[in-house]
Design brief:
The complex is a heterodimer of chains A (about 525) and B (about 120).
Chain A (H helix, E strand, L loop, with lengths): L3 H18 L5 H24 L4 E4 L10 E4 L1 H20 L8 H19 L3 H19 L5 H32 L4 H7 L7 H17 L8 H7 L5 H25 L6 H21 L3 H20 L4 H32 L10 H4 L1 H15 L5 H13 L2 H22 L15 H19 L1 H9 L7 H23 L6 H8 L4 H21 L1
Antiparallel strand pairs in A: 1-2
Chain B lengths: L2 E2 L2 E2 H19 L3 H23 L20 H32 L4 H10 L1
Classes of the chains: A mainly alpha (about 525), B mainly alpha (about 120).
């Protein structure tokens, strides 16, 4: 039954090509059919995986260290279900739009296949190939409407990511010279027998630098808001990028750091994660473009996930992985809502948007659910992952750090909340039914993921976590306190002071963004050698 | 074959070429030169792969390599063909995007392109 792994990767690509060649009228029907089949297969893979062992298959019958293997394990199965669910929703959401032609379908579904491949494949060189090809596709999708701003953003995205992948490839060359294999599982097996670790530092630093760029860690995130928040990119593309595609980087990071367990750099990445979170929400507070707020917010949440997976604790790791899933859902809802809002108001300025609730009540409800999820409100999915991360940390210093980090998140969303303010002239607006359904279903998932949080973590990853009611209640009060502090800070006008407005003016050019990569690489290498 | 710091001369040359490319990406403000620098970096990587596989005596396809002297590892060679193809693809897409950008903004300079972008 392991042939299902081939199908999961090839099916979306095949459907994409069929849609491109088939008559125009059939495109939506075929796209939906392909997605439903893919979703079914991904659930089947998940069930197979839950029966015990991970599902594996070797391409061409060659086993590692020479051959390439596909592995569906606990984390990758869940991520594939997530990919499938979100792509299905995005296609329903955008079914009626005029720019969604056959070419868009082909690029979009090919991206889905490649993304599934990144989650499944075990071979580092194949990961390089898949990421490189998907980078090209993503940059084409970013500039799909051929607007001149997105041209610049798409080109920056393509070149910066290619730059980082060349580092990755060079790291692979050095790694192959040392170990003679590209297979992650094989590296995990033999890494314990290596006596001298020092020669591995150079390839490790190169590979990790590019994984960190993909995951948008602190100095390496400047490309992300440009790509995710560019005004004319279709909102589904922003949602795919922010919800799923950056998670590929984090997933790669998790796999690599567990394979190279012999090299301990978790303190370094923990600090990087914390700084990324802070910088992310500082930028988010400074922005007034709603897509930019959301994309800087992605940076901040990625920092949180990075921090969680580097805490050397299983509970925090699963908290981080659950946050990947939750973040994918609520960030998609927020980007899709932003798409509806921008179309209705024809502005992206958060201060000019008023009276959303009166105009589109259902969209607003979904949006509010997602905001509650992302800020970690009790009963929503963000609270479960944040609970697990904080619970694992234990000591009081970490609790204060998390309070501060969450305060920033809440503060940036208090500003976002002004879009629901009353507006007397507002009238009901008709939102297409398919969009309402998608938003409400995904919004409800945020709520369900919170109410059945402990059960969901247990069911998805097969890990037993215990949510203690008293501590959870305690966390809920902390949340309310955070909310109150954030509200007071917002009213007192902290967010409009000078430091924030000067942050907004900060915009790095291509050369500066490119410079951050070698600098990060040198710092990481120095850390590994000297500490 | 001579060696320096445990690297063969081919590998040393590859490392130098790679970092010349990195310098080009970081320091040049011309978009076309950035794309060319990517090509240079990529050449460095390919040279490194090929020179590190040379005479390695661990060709994985053969089980017994004792009788053959100086064989090269075939895996890096196979992989580099893929890498070259991808490099061509990326360069083609980047140059196509650049042509579009040039038609819109009329500049080959990153800074001027950014200023023109912010005005719109």
């Amino acid at each position: 039954m392991s042939y299902i792994l081939y199908l999961l990767i090839l099916l979306p690509i095949l459907f994409g090509i069929i849609i491109f060649l088939a008559p125009k009228k059939l495109k939506v029907a075929l796209g939906l059919f392909g997605q439903v089949v893919h979703f079914g297969l991904s659930i089947y893979l998940f069930l197979l995986c839950r029966q015990g062992e991970a599902v594996t298959i070797s391409l061409g019958g060659w086993n590692p260290p020479v051959g390439i293997m596909l592995i569906g394990d606990e984390i990758s199965c869940v991520l594939i279900i997530l990919t499938s669910l979100l792509f299905l929703s995005f296609i329903i959401y955008n079914a009626h739009r005029h720019y969604v032609d056959r070419l868009f379908f082909m690029l979009f579904m090919t991206l889905q296949g490649l993304l599934t491949g990144i989650f499944l494949v075990d071979d580092l060189f194949s990961i390089f190939v898949l990421i490189e090809v998907s980078t090209m596709l993503v940059s084409l999708l970013i500039m799909f409407k051929r607007d001149s701003r997105s041209m610049y953003d798409g080109l920056i995205y393509l070149l910066i990511n290619t730059f980082s992948m060349t580092f990755f490839l060079f790291g692979l060359a050095l790694l192959y010279r040392q170990l003679g294999t590209f297979s992650i599982t094989y590296i995990t097996q033999i890494i314990g027998d290596i006596e001298n670790v020092r020669p591995l530092y150079l390839p490790y630093a190169m590979i990790m630098t590019s994984a960190c760029l993909k995951a948008a860690i602190m100095p390496l995130f400047s490309w992300l808001p440009k790509a995710h928040g560019t005004p004319s990119a279709p909102s589904v593309v922003s949602a795919v990028l922010s919800g799923l595609y950056v998670k590929g980087g984090i997933y790669l990071f998790i796999r690599l750091s567990s394979a190279f367990s012999i090299i301990d750099s978790s303190t370094f990445f923990f600090v990087c994660g914390a700084i990324t979170t802070v910088v992310g929400f500082m930028f988010a507070i400074a922005q007034k473009d709603i897509k930019m707020i959301l994309s800087y917010h992605t940076v901040s949440q990625l920092g949180l996930i990075m921090l969680a997976v580097n805490m050397n604790s299983d509970l925090a790791l699963w908290g981080g992985v659950y946050h990947i899933v939750s973040h994918a859902i609520f960030k998609s809802v927020l980007f899709l809502c932003a798409g509806v809002i921008v179309e209705e108001y024809s502005t992206r300025d958060v201060y000019k948007i008023r009276g959303l609730f009166k105009r589109m009540p259902l969209v607003s409800i979904a949006c509010i659910f997602a905001i509650l999820g992302i800020t970690g409100a009790p009963l929503f999915n963000g609270s479960i992952s944040k609970y697990l991360i904080v619970h694992a940390s234990g000591n009081i210093g970490m609790q204060i750090l998390f309070f501060f980090l969450n305060l920033g998140t809440v503060l940036s969303f208090v500003k976002f909340f002004t879009i629901f303010k009353k507006d007397k002239e507002a009238k009901r607006v008709k939102v297409p039914l398919n969009r309402q359904i998608v938003l409400i279903v995904l919004g409800l998932l945020c709520l369900l993921g919170g109410i059945f949080g402990g059960f969901a973590v247990n069911f998805l990853f097969g890990v037993d976590v215990h949510i203690e009611a008293s501590e959870y209640l305690n966390k809920s009060f902390v949340y309310l306190a955070t909310l109150a502090v954030a509200f007071v800070m917002y009213i007192s006008g902290v967010t409009k002071t000078k430091p924030f407005s000067s942050i907004r003016a900060l915009d790095l050019g291509f050369n500066e963004i490119a410079l951050t990569l070698p600098v990060f690489f040198c710092v990481l290498l120095a850390y590994l050698i000297f500490i | 074959m001579g060696s320096l710091f445990g690297f063969t001369f081919g590998e040393i040359a590859a490392i130098i070429i790679f970092f010349v490319g990195v310098y080009g990406v970081v320091a040049r403000r011309n978009i076309v030169k950035s794309v060319i620098s990517f090509g240079v970096m990529e050449m460095g990587v390919i040279l490194f792969f090929l020179s590190s596989g040379e005479g390695s005596l661990k060709a994985p396809i053969l089980s017994d390599t004792s009788e053959i002297a100086g064989i090269a590892d075939p895996i890096p060679q196979a992989l580099m063909i893929t890498a070259i193809v991808i490099g061509v693809g990326v360069t083609a897409v980047a140059l196509t995007m650049f042509i579009n950008l040039y038609h819109k903004f009329g500049t080959t300079n990153w800074e001027k392109a950014r200023e023109a972008r912010d005005k719109k």
